[in-house]
Amino acid sequence: MKIALAQLNYHIGNFDSNTAKIIDTLNTARQNGADLVVFAELCISGYPARDFLEFREFIGLCEQSAQKIAAACTDVACIIGIPTPNKKKSKGGKDLHNSAYFIADGEVKYVVNKALLPNYDVFDEYRYFEPETEFTCVDYKGHRIALTICEDLWNTIENPLYISRPMDVLIEQKPDVMINIAASPFAYNHDEERIAILSDNAKRYNLPLFYVNQVGAQTEIIFDGGSLVFDNKGEMVDEMPYFKEVLNYYNLNDDAIITPEQPVTLMRQRQTDIEQIHQGLLLGIRDYFYKSGFKQAILGLSGGIDSAVVCALAAEALGAQNVMAVLLPSKYSTGHSITDAEDLVRNLGCKSELVEIKSITDAFETALQPQFEGLPFNIAEENLQARSRAVVLMAMCNKFGYILLNTSNKSEAAVGYGTLYGDMCGGISVLGDVYKTQVYQLANYINRNGEIIPQNSIVKPPSAELRPDQKDSDSLPDYDTLDTILMEYVENRLSSAEIIALGYDEATVRRVLKLVNTAEHKRYQTPPILRVSPKAFGMGRRMPIVGKYLS
Amino acid sequence: MKIALAQLNYHIGNFDSNTAKIIDTLNTARQNGADLVVFAELCISGYPARDFLEFREFIGLCEQSAQKIAAACTDVACIIGIPTPNKKKSKGGKDLHNSAYFIADGEVKYVVNKALLPNYDVFDEYRYFEPETEFTCVDYKGHRIALTICEDLWNTIENPLYISRPMDVLIEQKPDVMINIAASPFAYNHDEERIAILSDNAKRYNLPLFYVNQVGAQTEIIFDGGSLVFDNKGEMVDEMPYFKEVLNYYNLNDDAIITPEQPVTLMRQRQTDIEQIHQGLLLGIRDYFYKSGFKQAILGLSGGIDSAVVCALAAEALGAQNVMAVLLPSKYSTGHSITDAEDLVRNLGCKSELVEIKSITDAFETALQPQFEGLPFNIAEENLQARSRAVVLMAMCNKFGYILLNTSNKSEAAVGYGTLYGDMCGGISVLGDVYKTQVYQLANYINRNGEIIPQNSIVKPPSAELRPDQKDSDSLPDYDTLDTILMEYVENRLSSAEIIALGYDEATVRRVLKLVNTAEHKRYQTPPILRVSPKAFGMGRRMPIVGKYLS
C-alpha cells in the first residue's frame, strides 16, 4: 500500500480554498499511484475554528466540503479531519465530535471520533466535542489501520491527562499499522516531545506509525508540520520538513516494512530554539497577512533592538517593499536612535518615513495645561509620547491600508513595561512570546551572514526614551535575571517561595511576580501574540484581571 | 435542623478576605442557632480563578484557608466550595477537582466532587477539573444530604449536555434533602431558567432543595445571588434577594417541611430585563472598582446617550463625587452635544472638565501633512479625533489615578462601529453587552423618577460626530432592525439564510454579519465587558480573527 502524507496549510472557515487544495492534492497523489492520502486533523474547517463550530451552518458547510471531496475520491482513498454532529446527542453530551472520515470509492466508509480532547493552554476542544468511547479499526487493501486523532496518542504514562487510552482498545483488534492525524501547534521545544511520544507509541504497540500534522499559522497559533513516520520498533523512518507544505509518499508492505519514495534525512541535526523561532515567526507573519488579505505592514522604528528585529522579520516575511518603518522621535530620543533606525532601513531596503511627535505632545500638554497645572512630569507625560506615536501609526494604517506590527517583547509584556494604547498597539504581536534575552539571540541570528540589524541597536543599553537618560535597568532587574524569574513563573508556574529557593533575591522575585499580575489588565487588551513557546500570553494563559493573589 | 444559607460576595485569590468573611458568617450563624451553614461553590478561591488554579501554591493556600475555617467550625457544621487535588491523578485525569467540603467538629468529614463541568460560554471548568464518577450522601444530625455542585443538577432532559446525572446515583442512597452550592452567573433571562431547572429537580427526586449562589462581580462576570429553597413538590419556599449579600435561616423537620425564619415574599413580581440589567451593571461597576482598589472613574461625555447612561450608572454605583466627566468637543461636535453633556453633569452633580481637541487633531494633521498631502479626508482623520480623546482621557488617568470607563454599546461593538484605541478604550466596558435599543430603555428607566439623562440625549438621532452631519443611520440599519439581526446571529447563532428567512432584507443581513465577523480583531483588544446577557462578547464568545467564514 502506497500512503501519501499531505502536510498542508489550511485557512479557518475558507471552505472553497481548503476543499480545492485537498482535491488537488488527491488528484496529484492518485497520479503518483498512491492508495491512500492522509490529510490533517480538522483540515476541512481549519483549526481552531473556535465558536464558528457552534453555528449549524458552519457544520453543514463542513459536510458539504467532505461530500465534494468524497465525489473526487475514486481510485484512491483518503483520510480527512472534520467536525461532525454527535449522533448520540439525545442521550447527552456535546453537539459535535472531532472526527476523521475514511473515504474510498466516492463515499465515507468509516467515521472515527477523537477520544482524548485537549482542554489546556490554547486548547478548548471539550468546549465543542464529545469524547468517543468506542473504537474500531479501518480495513483497507488488506491492511487493518488503527486510526486515531492527535491527542489520542498523547496520554503518556508519565503525565496521564486522561483516564483512558484508545490504542489500548484498538490493539485488541490486531491492526498492522497506526495512522494519526494531528493539528499540533509549534513551540520551540515541542518537536522533540512529539517525536519521543510518537516513537513510544510505535514501540509500545509494535506497529508502524504515520503521523500527519498541519502546517501554517492561524492568527497566533503556528502549526509547524514536521509530520513523522516510525517503524514498529519506534525508529524514525522520516521526519518531514518544518514550516512548509509537503506531499510525501511511503510504501508499506505486508511485513510492516516502510519504504519512502523520496530521499529522507534521518537523525538530522536538530535546529536550535532560535532557528525554529525565526522560521515560526516568519510563517506567522506571512500567514497573518496572507489569510487576512493584507500585504503591507507598518511599524514604529525606535532604533532599539525590538523594533529592529520585528522590522527585519517583516521584511523577510513580506518583502522589504511591503514594510513601512516610521521613525517617530520625541525630544527625549537620542541621536543614535535615529541613525540606528536609518541604518536598518538602508540595510533592509524597506520604506520609511519620519514624523516628529514634539508638536503633537506639545499640543496635548497645552490642551491639558489647565488640568495638569503645577503637577510634576510623570508617567502621564511619558505615556503621551508612546500614545502619540500609536495614533500617528494608526492614522497611516487608516489612510494607506497598512497593518501595524506590535514590537513589544515577552519580558515587557510580562511586567507591564509598555504603554496601553501606545507601544502595546498593533494587529499582531511578533515578539510577544519572545523574551528579551531571546530577542538578542534572534538579532544575532538575523545577522548571521552579515550585519542587517545595526550592532549599535544590539549593544546599547535598552531604553524606552520617554524621559531624559531613562534606562530599562532603572526600573527592572537585568534581563538575564528577569527572564529566568519570568520563565519559572509564567512557563513553570512556580510560586515566589519556590523561585526564591532557586537562589534569586527575595525582593526582586516578589516585585517581578507582582508586576506580572498587576499587568493582566494591560495584556487583556493587547494584540494576539504569535505563539512560539509552550506558554504564551493570550488564549493559552487565562488569568483573572480583578484578582488578589500575588498582587 | 436549622440551615443557614450564606449568599456572599467573594474576591478571587483574596484568601484573607474570603476566609475572614466565611468565619465571621459562621460565628453569626452559630449564635443564631444554626446547625449547618452553606456557602457557595469555590467560595474559598473566588470564581473563576482561571489559571491561578494551575499554581500549586494557590491550591495550597486554598487548603490552608479551609483548615482555618475547619478550626472555627465547632458546634456548627458548614459546606464550603474549594478546588482540591485529584487523588487518583496517577491513574490519569486533570490535576484538580471542583469540590465541596462538609466540615463539622473542626474537621473535614466529607469531600464531594463535581461531576458535570460546564465548559461553554464563559466556563472553562474542564480546563482544570476532573469530573467525579462516584457519589455518596452526607449524613448529619439524622438527615441524609444529597450534596451536589451547581451544574450537577443542570443535565436537563430537554438539552442533555452530559451523559450522566449524579442525582440519579445519589437518590438510590435515600437522601431526605438536597443541597446544591453554585456560582451561577447573571444574565437577564437566567433567573427564570434557574428557578425552573431547580424546581424540576426537587419535584423529580421528591426532595426539598437548598440552593446557594454567589453574589458579586469578578471583572466581567456578575453573580446575582437569588439563592433558592424548594419543597419536595418543587414549590418555591423562598427566593433570596438578588445582587446583595444575605444570610437566611430555614428549619427543616423530619417530614421535609421547611420553615423560613425570616419573612419571605413568594411569587413576587419578576423584575423586568432592564431592571435586572440596571442592578447588574451597578454591582459590576462597584465591584470592579472596589476589588481592584480604585475609587475614581473617568469617562468622555459626548452628549450622546451611551456616555450619558454610563455616567449616570457610574455616579449611582460609585457616588457622583467619584466620577469625572470630560467633555472633548471637536470641530464637528454640535452645540447641543456640549449643552446636553453639561445638563447631565448638573443633574448628577459629578465632576467635569472641558478639553478642546481641535489643537490636538490639528497637530496630528500638520505632522502627517507630508504623508497625507493631497489625499481626501477619510476615516484616518475621523479616527484621529476619537484617538485624541482617548489619549487625553488616559493622560488624566495616569495623572490622577482614574479608571477609564468604556462607553461603547453592544450594537457598536458587534459591527465594529468604534475606533480601536479611541472610543474602544477603557478599563471596563459598562454597556458592551447592552444593545443600543436596550440602552434607550435603560436611559428611560434611569429617568423613571425624573429627568437625569437629558431628554435631548435620548431623542436626538445617534451620531459619532466625526465628520459634518454624520448620523449612525448613514452607515448602519436602524437600531431596531440591527439589534434583532444581531440577536439572531450572536445570541441564537442563526445563519444568514435563517435570518433572511425570518423576513429581513438579504443585503442588510449579509452586510451586518460580515461587519460582525470582520470586527473580531477590534473586539479582541477591547476591555472586559460586564456580562448581562446569555452571550456577551469577550471570554464567552471565542472567534478566530483570521478566518474566512462569512467575512
TrEMBL record, chains A, B:
It catalyses: deamido-NAD(+) + L-glutamine + ATP + H2O = L-glutamate + AMP + diphosphate + NAD(+) + H(+). Its EC number is 6.3.5.1. SUPFAM superfamilies: Adenine nucleotide alpha hydrolases-like, Carbon-nitrogen hydrolase. L-glutamine binds at Y120, S184. The keyword NAD applies. Belongs to the NAD synthetase family. This is Glutamine-dependent NAD(+) synthetase. Pfam families: CN_hydrolase, NAD_synthase. Deamido-NAD(+) binds at N383, E412, K522. The active site is at E41, K114, C150. The gene is nadE. PROSITE patterns: CN_HYDROLASE, NITRIL_CHT_1. ATP binds at G300, L301, S302, G303, G304, I305, D306, S307, T407. Catalyzes the ATP-dependent amidation of deamido-NAD to form NAD. Uses L-glutamine as a nitrogen source. Keywords: ATP-binding, Ligase, NAD, Nucleotide-binding. Residues 1-260 form the CN hydrolase domain.
